[in-house]
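Is arginine placement plausible here? Inputs below.
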Amino acid sequence: MSKNPENSTRRYGRRLVPVLIAATVLLMSAGAPARATRHDPEVVGGDLAASGQFPWIVRISTGCAGTLVAPRVVLTAAHCTANIPVAGLAVTYGTVDLDDTRSARETRVTRAIVAPAFTQVVDGSDWALLQLDRKLDLPVLPVNQAPGYDTGRFTVVGWGATAENEPQQRKLRFVDVPLVPDHTCVSAYRAEGYTYRPDRMLCAGYVSGDLRDACYGDSGGPLIRRDTYGAWRQIGVVSWGIGCARPGLPGVYTQLSTYAHDLGDALDRLR
Ligand code: ARG
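Reply from A.M.:
I modeled the complex. Tokens:
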């Protein structure tokens, strides 16, 4: 793997050495491909988030994002926490700026439930719930329960890199990405030697033109859209991709509606 996605997490992660190793192993087992960079250099697009715009977003010490889905429970990607003892996990919340010591707060993780079927990102089930050591006084983000909202335009939010060769960001960013039909990603990723699983994953982004995408360090963060009442709802979790914003290779997200039952059970055990 010529470019280890997790290398750039150092500045904004803590206790990362074991995590880097674990993440590297995971990413390698996920087959994160080595390939010469051939991406549009002017993207991954997006804008700076305003303070309070996405109040339920959190940063996990492994260099991932997550969302507060109950006052004491954070949803993230399984590959952000699998094989990592909960004692080694901390969660930063309440800020868009990870270096702003006045607004940033930190809390510990007391329990974790990783999707029972999770093995590697390309097989799906890339979700985990973390129980915090106390309830946070912040709005929560509702998790999608049924596939009706798995369509249209989404927004992805995170502190990830703004391009493959850029570092992760100190300030939170967001970008709009439309749904890409499953069949497009089945064939795009098959051509790269990966099996995209339409029943477990959502593809979102751009195939050509104005490329925008999630990137390294956005993992575990939310893919959201407005529901019919205008409220944000979480549709997916940033899971994997090949590079960032490469033509023909949209980002891949955990399709949360597929896991509604297991997620609900796990949430009840942690809240
Ligand atoms: N696994 C990556 C991370 O560590 C996220 C990959 C998302 N990639 C993409 N091109 N959408 O943050």
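Short version: The radius of gyration is 17 Å.
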